[in-house]
Design goal:
Elements: E1 3-8, H1 22-30, E2 34-37, H2 48-62, E3 67-73, H3 75-85, E4 96-100, H4 112-119, H5 125-130, E5 144-149, H6 157-169, E6 174-179, H7 190-208
Parallel strand pairs: 1-2, 1-3, 3-4, 4-5, 5-6
Domain Peptidase S9 prolyl oligopeptidase catalytic: 51-205
Protein name: Prolyl oligopeptidase family protein
GO molecular function, one term: serine-type peptidase activity
Length: 210
């Protein structure tokens, strides 16, 4: 089966972190997985980034890719999760998602920079809830691998636990990993590789051989 992973770098919905783009593609290609970086729009409000990611997934499907996954980091993790849990159309829902220290929730306490950049400073609680991943899980949600460090000061780890609880409540396939230490933005740096990539590689392989 042809698999392609769309890599979505972080950057607080204000920029794209280079360390979470092409280095991640090279790591995935070392596993024999086709991948590409998608630079979704930044400096704009929802739903523009969400529509762009969804359109890219649909474009890959139309090009003949049999299985499309998303892998996002920080704000890019939120964009990946939103594509997985709130697709624009059935064709734009990815077959799986990998969320790395993702901004899971837009409801305080959260990464306020990402929330304000995506929704604006005056967004209502209802608007924030409408794009909070833990509130979007359903019976149609695809398999999700998510990880974070417990001492991440940029994204509250409690939000990842809430996402795990929501996935469990809907009986959706998922793997949640919380590592004791490590700064936000690890990516596939030397320290990041030691933390999460081996377990993620096994999880990706299990999609082919459950």
């Amino acid at each position: 089966m042809t698999t392609h992973i769309v890599v979505l770098p972080g950057g607080g919905y204000a920029e794209h972190a280079p360390s979470e783009g092409e280095p991640v593609v090279r790591w995935l290609e070392s596993l024999g997985i086709e991948a590409s970086v998608f630079l979704y729009p930044v400096g704009v409000h929802h739903p523009e980034p969400h529509i762009a990611v969804s359109d890219e997934i649909a474009r890959l499907r139309a090009a003949g890719i049999e299985r499309v996954g998303v892998m996002g980091f920080s704000a890019g993790g939120h964009a990946a999760g939103l594509a997985a849990l709130s697709p624009v159309s059935p064709a734009s829902r990815p077959d799986f998602a990998v969320l790395s220290y993702a901004v899971v929730s837009m409801v305080p306490p959260t990464n306020e920079g990402s929330a304000i950049n995506l929704l604006g400073a005056d967004a209502s609680l209802a608007e924030r809830r409408s794009v909070s991943l833990e509130m979007l899980v359903s019976e149609q949600s695809p398999p999700i691998f998510a990880w974070q460090t417990a001492d991440d000061v940029a994204v509250p780890v409690a939000t990842l636990y809430r996402l795990g609880e929501a996935l469990a409540a809907q009986n959706r396939p998922h793997a949640i990993h919380v590592y004791p230490r490590g700064p936000h933005g690890l990516g596939v740096s030397a320290e990041g590789l030691a933390l999460w990539t081996e377990e993620c590689a096994r999880w990706l392989s299990a999609l082919d051989h459950p």
